[in-house]
Specification:
The structure holds 2 protein chains of 2 kinds. Chain A has no helices and 11 strands. By secondary structure, chain A is mostly beta strands. The chains are: A mainly beta, B mainly beta. Chains A and B meet through strand 4, strand 5 and strand 10 of A and strand 5 and strand 10 of B.
């Protein structure tokens, strides 16, 4: 079936502009995660949703970053007043279930989308 | 959040070699562990979950050592296509998210 999709794949924006990054998870996946990945580093957690509820946003760097998943499927990560330091690969992942709960083995394995490369000039 | 540490490498090995990576984690109560593979400029892809009893998938074997708090990945009979970065991933209890290591780069040469 279809995997996780993200759009746009590439985004170049000028400093101070707002951007919205979209993630479409695997159909039926309950949990959705946003990560940021710098070159040569592993993905860094930003926030995650269980259905439409934002369960953890402790990884969001500051209040310019926000995310929503209003219908429990597609999610949008919004960065307001972008700065050059926001330039990175933004990755979305989804899982059937949520780690930390007693779930079937394998049900909380995360599957990543291709990412959005954001460049702030 | 707790740390997940990996040797960044690169590990340079010839085709057919056996290579092993270790990953250490700091939270002794961590419960779930994974290895992901990431090719250059691509998204991370799940390679295998790591269970307490250890598990094997073809040429790949994952082991968990809770006493020493490390996870290992063994690759036998390396192929050129195994060249990638291998990410160690840990789920800490109380957090419903995953912590990724920085990755270990493997380069398999002819």
């Amino acid at each position: 079936g279809a995997g996780v999709s993200q759009s746009p794949r590439y985004k170049v924006t000028k400093r101070g502009q707002d951007v919205a990054l979209r993630c479409d998870p695997i159909s039926g996946h309950v949990s959705l995660y946003w990560y940021r990945q710098a070159l040569g580093q592993g993905p860094e957690f930003l926030t995650y949703f269980n259905y439409e509820a934002q369960q953890d946003k402790s990884g969001l760097p500051n209040d310019r970053f926000s995310a929503e998943r209003p219908e429990g499927s597609i999610s949008t990560l919004t960065i307001q007043r972008t700065e050059q330091r926001d330039s990175a690969m933004y990755r979305c992942a989804s899982s059937l279930d949520t780690p930390g709960y007693k779930a079937e083995r394998g049900s909380y394995e995360q599957y990543f989308g291709p990412g959005t490369r954001l460049t702030v000039t | 959040r707790k740390e997940v540490e990996q040797d960044p490498g690169p590990f340079n090995v010839p085709e057919g070699a056996t290579v092993a990576f270790n990953c250490t984690y700091s939270n002794s109560a961590s419960q779930s562990f994974f290895w992901y593979r990431q090719d250059c400029r691509k998204e991370p892809k799940l390679l295998m979950s790591v269970y307490s009893s250890g598990n094997e998938d073809g040429r790949f074997t994952a082991q968990l050592n809770r006493a020493s708090q490390y996870i290992s990945l063994l690759i036998r009979d390396s192929k050129l296509s195994d060249s990638a970065t291998y990410l160690c991933v840990v789920n800490e209890p109380g957090y419903s998210t995953l912590t990724f290591g920085k990755g270990t780069m493997l380069l398999v040469s002819p």
